[in-house]
Amino acid sequence: MRRVCLTLPTHRACTATIAAVAGEAAYGAREFGVEVHLLILDSSAPADLAAHRAAVAALPPAPGVVVHHLDEDRQRAFLREVLASARPDDADRLLDLMLPAGVSYGACTNRAFLLAEALGCASVHRRDSDSRYQLLDGEPVFPIHHELTALGRPAADVAAEVTRGRLDPGCADRTVVLAGASFIGALSVDVAELRALDPEAYHEVVGLSVPAGHPEIWRRNLIDEAFRGAGTTPFTTDTTTLTLVSPTRVDMCNVALCREVYGRVPLPPATDTIGTDYFLLHLVRNARLPGVLHNRHIVNYHTEERRSDAGFLAYQLRFAKYLLATAHLDTVYAGLAATGDGLLDAAGRVRPDAVAALVRESTLIDPAGNEARLDVLGRRYRSLGGRYATAAALFADRRDRLLAEAASGMTDFARLVDAWGSLTAHAKGTAVNHPPRPRTAHAPAVTP
């Protein structure tokens, strides 16, 4: 039986989301006859972790669904077993990259990738704790429907079942490795207040994320569309497109990838940095690997914690680090685009060595560009006063560290790419705690 991994990484209270994602897992198993491994990777504080354990224990039984709820201790134990088996030279550093002390959107997803390998899954389907499903006639609209329909199949076969086909015929014999959609609701990056306070400041700050060289009219369009997802129009009927999926049309709370991609290249493990976990979407597009873009968008919302002063400051730091990482990542993305089909080997598989080489080259960019980015960010935030000025002071205090981390983060990423093939190979023989059993009609199968 085909196995897939539906993963929910979390570091915050999300009992309602756990129940909702479990419903999606049950739908996938019921409608597609697959075994769905619901993988909850929990980095929450003790009280929230306890509430999540209770929520998992209360899940109703669902045939074909296996639930794994792993706190950080169990995740670390799994990683140590993989590293002990792989025996890399820098095992301690790799462990830090896979399970860092800070928040890392890439690292938590990389852990899901390795665990999916251990569970024998063909694909990983990622959701987020601060999102929920749309409803149609009172029923949730599950993205896994399109993900399981398309993933792992030849593009030529999928072409007959989608609403639109926009794929180069030369890619028709390639496998569909990505399926995704976006979100509706609140902006994915918390800059709506900035836009309301000072539209010119918003334009200049968000413009720092746009690669240099675009004509001004394109820049304005990219800035206007940034972080808005699919807008606010609710779902009414399915629309699917077979294409080379643009990363700007997909959100990481609503995406699925085949192991042919994540089994060969990981995500950047940058800490406290938004946006870097979109790397594989760029790789898939530039390697001309087919995907399906659908419109079962998830509803995005902002938690109350992000509205607090401490939450605001933490998020603005992640945003600043994203703007600095962009300078390096844009260099890699340009290299990926220029390499094109050369990113694949003779068997049509992604070449990790080609990716690692481009990542290493990106560490050599002139740091003056990022120094200028921090100058703009500090100037604009100071002009707004209040907690924006507090953020600007934080950026100034950490200036040298922020600049250094932007470059060292890419060095760490290249190191992880080099080791990734060995890690995924040895993950296959590693138990995920006690091997879980499929859920029956009497009790849920849970790895607590």
Automatic annotation (TrEMBL):
Q: What is this protein called?
A: DUF6271 family protein
Q: Where is this region: Disordered?
A: 428-448
Domain of life of the organism encoding this protein = Bacteria
Q: Which Pfam families match?
A: DUF6271
